Structures are given as C-alpha cells and as structure tokens.
Amino acid sequence: MKSDRLKWNERYRRQEHPGAPAAVVREFARLAPGRRALDIAAGNGRHALYLAGQGFRVDAVDIADAGLSLFAGRHPAVRIICADLELFDIPAARYDLIVDVLYLNRRLFPQICEGLAPGGILIFETLVAAPGSAAEEGHCRDYLLRENELLHAFLSLNVIYYREGGETGREGERVMAALVAVKK
Fold first, then answer.
1. How far apart are CA 51 and CA 35, in angstroms?
2. Helix spans in 2-60 (H)
3. Would 41 disulfide with which of 5, 103, 106, 107, CB 3.0-4.6 Å?
4. Mean of the pLDDT values across residues 17-24?
5. How far is CA 52 from CA 29, 39, 70, 167, 173, in A?
C-alpha cells in the first residue's frame, strides 16, 4: 500500500534503526542446511547483510525503498526486492532459511511454511501484546502477537527453540516472542 510505503520511508529517513542482527538470528542461522535465505521486512538490511557475510544468498524484501537503499549494493549476495508484503507471495520450497524479525503478517504464515525447503529453518521474532508494555503504545494490536500465538502458528514445523517474555528494548520494556523451527 502506498501509505505504508510513505510511512516507512519517512521512518527510515528520520529514525535510527538497529544495526546489529538480532541475537536469535546470530545464534541459529548456522543451522540452515543450505545457503538460500529470505529476509522478510528487511528494513535497513541488518539481517540480510549479516546472512550474506555468513555465506547466504539473500532475498531481502521490504516495502520501504528508503530502508532498502541503506544497504543496496553493499553485498553481491543480497538481492533487493521492493514489494508490499500484503501482496508478496513466497515461492514454495525455495529457502533454506527464512528470517522474520519485528514484522507480523499472519497472511504469510502458511507461505512461510511452504517457502522453506525440506530441512529449512525458520527464525521468527516479534512483539507480543501485553497491557502496559512499550509495544502496546503506538502499535495497532493487529501487528502484535497474542500470547503463545507464534508457537501455535508453526506447529506444523519441528520447533527447536521458543521464548516468550519481557525484555528492555530501545523503546523501553516490551514482550517478545522468538521461535526457531525446522521444516520436516
């Protein structure tokens, strides 16, 4: 949607965004059986560039061309895809690793499962709705997980790691859920 692109482009022009990859990505990406990865809502490229540095060929998808421009051309193994994730379809059985950090689009859940090659790894981490947390302020509840929702959404995969709980982030205390799972 054009309004989403404008909103996120403005955020990338005005705000600092994390530069280091999420700990869950650093810890579990090495488990991928091959070297083809998808970074959903790639933002400023922190995960795409990290994965490329680890030998992955990465498709980095985001709606914000301002975010994508922050890392376009910085690594030859990263392919930039400027697309609205409300319309984007993940190709079946293409990826050995799919990373989704701080983005929630429930429409993509079945496609994420199908997009993994056999033995492929999913790394997913995002915000959980919790009354009074920093995540609740300024976020539409549609973009926040419900308690244990992430775990239940990917039970068709073999879940090897799951954590849900509070942490202190740039915006204060927030509740996060992280899942790592393998396609059977």
1. 9
2. 2-14, 23-28, 46-53
3. 103
4. 84
5. 11, 11, 15, 28, 31
The token pair that represents 84 in the structure block: 């609205």
85-124: per-residue pLDDT in tens? Answer: 999 999 999 999 999 999 999 999 999 999 999 999 999 9
Q: CB atoms < 10 A from the CB of 151, how many?
A: 16
Q: Do 41 and 85 meet the contact criterion of CB atoms below 8 Å apart?
A: yes
- Cβ–Cβ under 8 Å, residues 128 and 147: yes
- C-alpha 39/C-alpha 101 separation (Å) is 8
Tell me the CATH number at 17: 3.40.50.150
Return all residues near 138 (Cβ < 8 A) that are at least 6 apart: none
Tokens (6 digits) for 171: 């915006």
- Domain around 64: 2-182
pLDDT tier for residue 134 given thresholds of 50, 70 and 90 = very low
- Sorted by sequence, the CB contacts under 8 Å of residue 43 that are 6+ apart come out as 12, 17, 62, 64, 67, 102
DSSP state of 29: G
Output the pTM of the full model: 0.87
**Residue 47 · residue 22 · CB < 8 Å:** yes
